[in-house]
Please model this.
Amino acid sequence: QVQLVESGGGLVQAGGSLRLACVVSGLTFRQYRLAWFRQAPGKDREFVATISQGGSTTSYADSVKGRFTISKDNAKNTVYLQMNSLKPEDTAVYYCAANNYYWGQGTQVTVSS
Model:
């Protein structure tokens, strides 16, 4: 059974930082492209960042480029999203995904102004 479990969300003031983690089980971690998406209230789910199977290639949405960093630890079957210089518009539920096929349940990030 494939499971993706996110953690690390919370309430933070604008300009602050959070690190999200997503632990993956039930699949061969290093064979999957991993990504973070987010969904704000009343909006569609949107892409945030992705990392290649080997971890050498990353890609980001323009809205987070330079502020967020995606990384992975194959030994821990975990993908991370380091979020710095947070803005109120970053408020959303954040989801991790494997090959955009398997999804976690999400973790809430709220940024106060």
In short: The two ends are 40 Å apart (CA to CA). DSSP finds no helices and eleven strands in the chain. Residues 3 and 25 are 5 Å apart (CA to CA). The chain has a mean pLDDT of 97.
